[in-house]
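Hi all, a correction to my earlier message: I attached the wrong file for trypsin. Here's the right sequence:
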Amino acid sequence: MGVVIFTLFALCCAAAGAVPAALNNARIIGGTVTTINQYPVMASLLLTRDFVHWRHNCGGSILNQRSILSAAHCLYRRQPNVYRARLGSSFASSGGVIFNFAQFIMHPNYNSRNQDNDVAIMRTSSGISYNNVIQPARIAGANYNLRDNERVWAAGWGVTSVNSNQHSEQLRHVQVYTINQAVCRQRYAARSPITDNMLCSGVLDVGGRDQCQMDSGGPLLHNGIVVGVCSFGHRCAEPRYPGVNARVSRFATWIGNNS
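and the right structure:
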């Protein structure tokens, strides 16, 4: 099954831009409700501890008719049978179509300590049929270079408040900005290394908008193309610390070979 991979050559490097997140793993803060019609590539990943109750835990992006892209930390030390995907629904707990998983493919260089290479592919047990609310994502190619301060969108069912552990039932989205890599690296210097495999986003020195817990694995989109996979941050939506995503362009070949 093919994956739609896009390339974009940036003409220059612009100024800095942007935000905060959480050295926990990630949710949408400061956003608004939206629908699956606007984000038909979205998957809600449901986790169980007893095989009776299933609860939204992470997000993902449909790659093709058998694979979903998510964050490696969502799947770390877990077997495929403890997750299901809900596709084609605006709601985390109802509607859409449920898929079981047959296989998880973790990036071989995933580092659970600093979240480097935080990407994974989830293979479904049965084929995914497309319709108007279930569609494959367009994925940034290896030469897709984002300038600083570009508008990007994050979507997910994560918590909507730093002080809450309850995820949003309805899909939400928020517009943030890409942040200069050197600035992001400096902000996180005392906390966690920011590698070239990471992409920072947010509203720097302002805060209030971010991905956060249970948004992990979900997409960061630039002009409708998946450029990031929600990974981590220091708390959520804090002015000093941007949110951190896996930079999809760095993994384009690996995604294409394993999906």
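Sorry for the mix-up. Residues 4-36+137-249 form a domain with the Thrombin, subunit H fold (CATH 2.40.10.10).
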